[in-house]
Write a structure and sequence with these properties.
This protein is α+β, with helices and mostly antiparallel strands and about 290 residues long. It has helices spanning about 35-45, 50-55, 65-80, 145-165, 190-205, 215-225; strands spanning about 5, 25-30, 85-90, 105-115, 175-180, 210, 225-235, 240-250, 270-275, 280-290. It is globular, with a radius of gyration of 19 Å. Pfam families: Acetyltransf_7.
């Protein structure tokens, strides 16, 4: 049986995001509970391009409401346990009204969640308790591959401990997740959010760490992250698997005050992926990985 690496992208499709106008008034700020809807919107839209979601939730397209509810709960957890930064841009006319996400002329288009070395309690801006049930008008349906979810969670915990925690006992700035809505990608949001974390870590004298997705890997390498290894998530007898690289950014001892975002190159990359469909047909998918 041949193993297949899950690399992201919808089955049998060419992903090519529209070309929005230049980012207008892009800004970063710390997230609040009021951003929950916007973060959920970003996560649901970006999930097909991050292989960890198709791998764990191969049936998500059959249960979109349940998957969106799961994404919403995950975003609530990020707000309660991590430092979440959001990137706002001006909404442009061809997209749905920004008011859908509680915005007027601007909308949240990307977010990142960071874990600092000091144990954090629930941030003061999260007034709504995490355990409070979220209204779900759809009958509950268990989605996802539970065995894959358990294997993924265990592998991430074990490899975070071995790659990062044991290596840096003083702590490190861990980038838990970085997502940008596909319609706003390649406008600098991911770069700005990552640079924020690098500078915060640098001010604390810490390394910045991340388990990279295929979409994020090229960005991290451009910003100066170095690979230190990788790990595989694969169930016995399962031909699909994830290969996840671990990267670190070490602060420079050169007296510089900030890490400046690098200029985006004009080139772009294309990955040819092989994934197994629901009906066990194998197709090749091309996914652009440029920022």
């Amino acid at each position: 049986m041949c193993a297949r690496r899950i690399c992201g992208g919808e089955r049998g499709t060419m992903y090519s995001a529209p070309s929005p106008p230049p980012a207008a008034g892009m800004s970063l700020r710390e997230a609040t509970l009021a951003d929950l809807d916007a973060m959920t919107w970003v996560l649901v839209a970006a999930s097909p391009l991050d292989p960890v979601y198709p791998y764990r939730f191969p049936d998500r397209l059959s249960y979109p409401a349940e998957f969106a509810q799961l994404c919403r709960q995950k975003c609530r957890e990020y707000l309660a346990t991590s430092t979440v930064m959001v990137c706002e841009m001006e909404a442009w006319p061809s997209f749905p009204s920004a008011s859908e996400c509680g915005q007027k002329a601007r909308r949240v288009v990307a977010f990142s969640a960071w874990d600092a070395p000091v144990a954090q309690s629930t941030p003061p801006h999260v007034a709504e308790p995490l355990s409070k049930p979220v209204h779900n008008p759809v009958s509950p349906v268990t989605i996802g591959n539970q065995d894959r979810m358990n294997a993924f969670r265990k592998a991430c915990q074990e490899n975070k401990a071995s790659f990062f925690d044991a290596r840096y006992p003083r702590g490190h700035m861990f980038l838990k997740i970085l997502l940008c809505h596909p319609d706003y990608q390649r406008k600098g949001a991911g770069q700005a959010l990552t640079t924020w974390g690098i500078n915060r870590a640098k001010a604390l004298g810490l390394n910045t760490t991340v388990f990279a997705s295929p979409m994020g890997h090229r960005l991290y390498k451009k910003l100066g992250f170095q690979p230190i290894g990788s790990f595989r998530v694969q169930l016995v007898g399962d031909e699909d698997f994830l290969e996840i690289p671990a990267l670190i950014f070490k602060p420079q001892d050169d007296g510089q005050h900030e890490v400046r975002p690098v200029k985006r190159a004009a080139t772009r990359e294309t990955m040819v992926l092989r994934v197994q469909s629901t009906f066990h047909h194998t197709r090749e998918i091309q996914v652009r990985t440029d920022e």
